[in-house]
Amino acid sequence: MSLATDGVDRNEVTDVHAHLLMPGLHAEVERRVPDEVQAAADLELKRNGLASLQASGRMIGERFPRLTDVRARLEAMDAQGVDRQWVSPSPNHFYPWANEGLATWTTAEANRLIADHVAQAPDRLVGLGTAPLQHPHLVVDALDDAVLGRGLAGVEISSFAGDVELSDERLEPFWARAAELRAVVFLHPFGCSLDERLDRFYLSNTVGQPTENAVALSHLIFAGVLDRHPGLRLIAAHGGGYLPTAIGRSDRAWTVRPEARGCAHAPSTYLSKLWFDTVVHDERALRWLVEAAGPDRVLLGSDFPFDMGLDDPVGFVRGAGLSDAETSGILGGNAAELLRTRVHA
User: What is the C-alpha separation between 298 and 218, in angstroms, rounded?
Assistant: First the structure.
């Protein structure tokens, strides 16, 4: 492997949060393990409720071309004023329940399909693969496959998988390898452990996603993962969820509770060691995120092309009342800097 500077342009408008749906992959998983797929569908029904699942099905059907076809994706990017997208798997492809053999195959296949997709427009698209978080001993190989084998910029992971939290000591080799490769690790939850308490009003997304982000980031911070791996390039989707706006409570716990002293410094200091996307849906929240984490730690994201994303991500950032320099960095400069010195095969 080698450390090289990418020919990235700081003036390119870059969306770091966009997804690819891989129906062929899912069809093969369903063919191989139909009972496990049905059990996962039953859990989704429990977590989301029938009304939300039906609405989501209609929404995905309407947006299917943008989720699967490069030409439709590029046309939509042009309409949004986006020059470059970082494309990651739709989170339903995490398969956190998959056994070792199936997880190894689904991960490799997802990485291949992401690489094939972005290769159709390499000047516009950057790929992020995935890793089977539920099997910590497999995640380093999955990361190497994505970055060194497929030329992807990193991997997307969920907030937890089974009994594996991001603070799990079995993930230490993964964090070390990600830092060594200068790979992007994109934290994007899939499912919330609050389950049926969120099964109406689309609370599974509106409350569940920001909750999961906050929990996962808190595991990373309080366990000292960021102390041990200062070179880690972790981006939290959805602006990090509830954590940045409620970080004072974490600082208080760190100050007064001995069991919350697993990190070397107050939790709020670690916000400037992470990156966050702009999918917060509120200009005030975006300004607070910039203040809490720093303008160089916020990246344009849209959650393309899902309905809970930003339809006009560029306009949202431009309308937040930030300085020209802050706006320029968020729209592309900060993402370009993350890619500038990534490791290549």
Answer: 18
Q: What is the gyration radius of the CA atoms in the chain, in angstroms?
A: 19
- Buried b / exposed e along 261-295 (16+ C-beta atoms within 10 A): eebeebbbebbebbbbbbbbeeeeebeebbebbbb
Q: What is the reported pLDDT for 10? A: 73
CB-based contact 322:315 (threshold 8 Å)? no
* CA distance to 218, 246, 314, per residue, from 251 (Å): 11, 9, 33
Token match 């470059």: residue?
A: 84
Residues 115 and 88: their CA atoms lie apart, in Å, by: 10
State pLDDT tens for residues 37-63: 999 999 989 988 899 889 989 999 999
Token pair of 328 as six digits = 């320029």
Residues of the chain with pLDDT under 70: 1-8, 345
> What per-residue confidence (pLDDT) applies to 191?
84
Q: Of 181, 66, 183, 70, nearest to 128 (Cα)?
A: 183
Angle at 150 between CA 149 and CA 152, to 5 degrees: 120
The angle at the Cα of 205, spanning 72 to 194, to the nearest 5 degrees, equals: 145
Q: Which two tokens stand for residue 197?
A: 């308490």
CA atoms within 13 A on the CB side of 292: 22
pLDDT computed for residue 342 by the predictor: 78
Cα 186 to its chain centre, rounded Å, is 3
